[in-house]
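Write out a record, fold above all:
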Amino acid sequence: MLDDRSAIEHHKYSQRLTELERRSAAAQQRQQKKKPPKMHVGNKIRGIKIKRYVSNGERVLKLVVLFSAILLFMLYIISPLSKITTLHVTGNHDLTKEQVEKNANIYPGRFIWGVYLARHQLTKQAIRKNPQIKDLRIKVTGPQSLQISVKENALLGTAVMNNDTYAVLADGQLQRTKNADNGIAYKRFDGHKKVLATTAAQLGKLKLAIRNGISSVSYQPTKEYPDRVIIYMRDGNTVYGDLNTIGDKMGYYPAIAASMKNKGIIDLQVGAYSYDYGSKDK
């Protein structure tokens, strides 16, 4: 009886042991499936060497490309391929293309990047040489092409003082010239350069349509009006004004002239009023 019980317990123990071994074996199999297969040390070293070789190769290639680009650009800068062959001038009205090029010292054959790098200095030089140039913009438009955009001081007309002829500019500057312009004629300003410059600067404020309607300007001061200028219009009217304010007051001219039934005088010295020729002696 005792032997039978021992046999049964031994059998149950064997079964439990077998079950534990089976579970342990199954767990090991699952663990092995999760773990990647171990790489041989030699393979690891070989992989590291390949990665380093590829990385170093990429670095070398980048450096070669960079220095090659720099070298090519430097060769281009000093080669005939970087010389100006096409030069465009825009924005000029009174000035010719040749005058702009000469004053800016820019011409076909110069190295384009040398011009571009010195553009600010060249602009100052051009303005100093020719007061008709108010500003310049230099722009590279191609490997061998350049564009110069010029902003002019408008040429208003000419004045003859002490047998010298001056071009009168919109900002009040005077430039000695040999050519008489068919714009506004400035008369009776002999010995009064500052007065002429002030008058010109005032008229330079006017809209082009009004300015183009002026035939001539005469400086005719009186005791009562020491700064009087008389403006003769192309439409037949005459304007009396103060040389210090005429630029602002002439803005009313079109409306006043349109309201006049006959040609006459528009007085802008003090206030603004008009009257026909012969109806009032001023």
